[in-house]
Amino acid sequence: MLLENQIFSINSNADFNRIALETFQFQFENCPVYNQFCKNVLKKTPRNIAEIPFLPISFFKTHEIRSNSIKKVEHTFYSSGTTGENRSKHLLLDTEIYERSFLETYRKFIGNPEEQVILALLPSYLEQGNSSLIYMVNHLINQSMSQLSGFLLNKPDVIEEKYSSAILSGKKIVIFGVSYALLDLAEKNLDLSEAFIIETGGMKGRRKELTKEELHNLLITGLKVPFISSEYGMTELLSQAYSDKDGLFQTPAWMNILIRDLNDPLSYLENGKTGGINIIDLANLYSCSFISSQDLGKIEGDSFRIMGRFDNSDIRGCNLMVE
Fold this sequence. Notes:
Elements (H helix, E strand, L loop, with lengths): L2 H4 L6 H18 L1 H10 L13 E2 L2 H4 L12 E4 L10 E4 L2 H15 L6 E6 L1 H6 L3 H13 L5 E2 L4 H14 L2 E7 H9 L7 E6 L11 H12 L5 E4 L8 E3 L5 E2 L4 E7 L2 E5 L6 E7 L8 E11 L2 E7 L14
Parallel strand pairs: 1-14, 4-5, 4-6, 6-7, 7-8
Antiparallel strand pairs: 2-3, 8-9, 9-10, 11-12, 11-13, 13-14, 14-15
């Protein structure tokens, strides 16, 4: 079975560990940037996922992270970023893998888009273009096959009208919203109590950054909803995690999280302790599946919690340069 098919047939930890090691070997042999990075840090061939080197996410801003394969680049996604910021770039070599990854994950954690009205309040992503999030949400909107689904401008009266029409349809209402735009609505006390709201993307320099708990409390009060879900995804990944009412994120079977020690980035912390989030995304087959993020988190049971971000990740010894 081809490796890209095995990724979506994982049903045990043993499957995941085996396929992760096979994916590492494929990327070590075929991704030049990752190969050079691994040669700088590896002392022996990895025997388990904890021994696999994790590429600092900042490399997506400075290098082309892709495999040398017969596949051509089908899409190039850019991070949203802020004005003047060097944006991360993800060269997508297989659109089908991305679509399968996000659609199967969405169905598992959020529901069938065909049974929903999906509204998207993502102005900053639309403005900058070439967004993997816009690509995903647009695909889900098309899957919903509802004329009510679509992208919204940040205009409360238009949103209220769309929302009211969606209620009359009898379908589940899902709203994807970038954090600052949802906060704008919450401050206007717009009643979206019948909607399932998925917050994503942060403040994008438009507002002061808040913790997830602070943000969600404000949104719950202002929008009159029982809880807020979050989508944990990024330009550099092809998979997403979604949070439940307790703020805990769950991943699909081909995605996993490890928590590294901030003072020793090659060591990992036990469950319940806060550290840097390392992400294994096996859907990133033709890029890099092993990424060291700048997010802080901790593992709780079979889920994980986001605790914030840190700014001095390069100083902490994780960003070994590629020559």
